Amino acid sequence: MLWIGLTGGIATGKSTVSNYIEELGWPVVDADLVAREVVQKGSEGLGEVVKAFGPEILTPDGTLDRAQMRKLVFKDQQKRQLLEGLLHPRIQRRTAQKRGELEASGYKVAVYDVPLLFEKSLQGQFDQTFLVYVAPELQRQRLMARDGISQDDADRLISSQMPIDQKRPLATRVIENSGTKEDLQAQVQELVQEIESQL
User: How much is the pTM?
Assistant: First the structure.
């Protein structure tokens, strides 16, 4: 089974591309959903996180308080590394399990939608990588419009990730998202058809 990593930057349209890919029949495993699964209420993963960070990271109903967790690790690199050390092995195991299930079901291609693919140097885990790309200026405009934030806030969010222009040469395929949704959809369809014709 061909295993493809899909990534982008904030406000580049990665989620839209992910939806188009699913509509065309390729299964998509969402890294963010897997990360939520491994710390769901009652899970071993959540137990480990509580042991490391204390019960104040739980909501009254016993689920992970994501806002509180983000606050704890945002400015503290040691805490962030501790959290990643607890969760990443679980996320990797769960992802491998999902990948195995898809392959056993007979899929020829599956996609892993992962925001920090290049930041975490994960490209070696995939047969191909797709980058959803927009020029930095357009990325800023879209982020400001989407989230209703100032240019300074948009720049701060964008600068927390690897610059999109540095990701571009690392990707097997670049999906340009500077035009309309129809342009993007046509491009994704063409890419899917091209890959399927080579299988």
Answer: 0.89
